[in-house]
Amino acid sequence: MPLKVQDIMKLLCSVCEQKKVQAAGKHSVKGALVTGAVAFVGGLVGGPLGLAIGGAVGGLLGAWMTSGQFKPVPQILMELPPSEQQRLFAEALAIVRGLDWADAVQLTTLVLGNKELQQQLLALVVNYVSKELRAEIRYDD
Q: Which contiguous run of DSSP H or E holds residue 23?
């Protein structure tokens, strides 16, 4: 039975929901820039000791700025443009192609019952989100 892109996206979302995968993108970059800037200023003002203090203060400030900025990966996947969803569809289909299934619900059940397939699909999503979207991944297990 041919699968639709939305069926595979729902499958990927189900796998990510089980592991409670979240990602933070642009805000992580802001936090890193703030950390680096404060450490730099600390180094200019106080030398090596100022660099250490600036790095610590900048790290805390960066962490504070990015706290709460993580979004569930399923939400991110469903907000992707159709061309990117199609790309994930093709890669995920290559992983599940050998399974014997009748519909999308049965395929999801088969995948959720197979730890190896879950890990392969999760790795696909995590790799995509971290490399293509340059997002930081967090698991809330």
A: strand 21-24
Which pLDDT does position 21 carry in this prediction? Answer: 77
pLDDT, tens digit (0-9, with 9 covering 90-100), for 50-81: 888 888 887 777 777 665 567 788 888 888 88
pTM greater than the 0.70 cutoff: no
Spatial separation of the C-alpha atoms in residues 84 and 118, rounded to whole Å: 20
Q: How many whole angstroms separate alpha carbon 24 and alpha carbon 112?
A: 25
| CA gap 14, 122 in Å, rounded | 10
Q: What is the C-alpha separation between 111 and 15, in angstroms, rounded?
A: 8
C-alpha closest to that of 126 among 60, 68, 74: 74
For the chain, give every domain's residue range: 1-22+71-141, 26-68
CA distance 139 to 110: 23
